[in-house]
Amino acid sequence: MGNLTMGRKNLLEALIPPSEEETYAPTAPRRPGSRAVGVVGAMSESFEAMAADLRTAKDRIETGEFVAEIDTDLIDPSFITDRIGDGSGMEEFIASIRDYGQRTPILVRPHPDTEGRYQIAFGHRRYRALKVLGRPIKAMIKTLTDDELIIAQGQENQSRLDLSYIERASFAARLESKKFGRNVICSALNIDKTEASRMVSIATVLPQELIVAIGPAPKTGRRKWMDLSKAVEQIDWQSERKTILTSCRKASSVDSDARFDLILRHLTRLPPKGDADEQSETAPNFILDKRPGLIRIRFNETNLPKDEVEKFLSQVRDICSNFAVKS
Predict the structure, then answer these.
(1) How far, CA to CA in Å, does 35 sit from each of 39, 106, 203?
(2) pTM of the predicted protein model
């Protein structure tokens, strides 16, 4: 497992990650006692010191207060992802780790399925950076249940405030899909059950490929994502899928918040789902669809007298001409 170093006391209490400013002070040298006289005394003192150090190490291992250097090849990511992509600024982050080293350990557990391997609870960016650099990683090792791992992962990201709204919502939806209880989801994201339900609903309605294509959109909040999910519900996603995803790819040069706005504007201009050109005989004679920036009037010519249709169109043209609008 490599060279072992001791973390500060209560480092893993309540699974709260240490500050980025945390440093690791070397163990203070043991002062020789009054009995350390002569060769026999010195040897006795040395053995007592070793025994005390071993007892301390054993206690810290059992309580989880244990930091080790582990080869990154022995570590696997969490079974639930919480980011869309690698996040921004990864190159700068790798450069910082290369120049100044890793100041804060990650949290891992012994892998539940593979002996000799570990699974990350939190610290995925540090893990990826050190893997690129080919360096071992400082890690706190603690036996965790799936629920404990998820709560630790969510709370660490919550404390750092670096996940966007849709990343948190997608995290909640993934937990829901894997049958984690709402109490675990709420604890992991520090939200109430109402907000958990809202997040799961938004991330479930939106196709995952659309979320990935847009990106994390860090400046886009709950209200806009709710608007987008409602817009997606109103359209036939399968028929519009290719066009929308192509638009996202073409907008790859702009940031994800700009892509979000582009897609939302595009979706609000599309006709509602099921509002195809061919209407059945049972379809309503008249439909008015009013959306932001768009008013659409549709009527079933087969069920209306032709002269009434022409009269109506004439009135519409007159109204439009008054506002210099081409009909």
Answers:
(1) 11, 42, 68
(2) 0.61
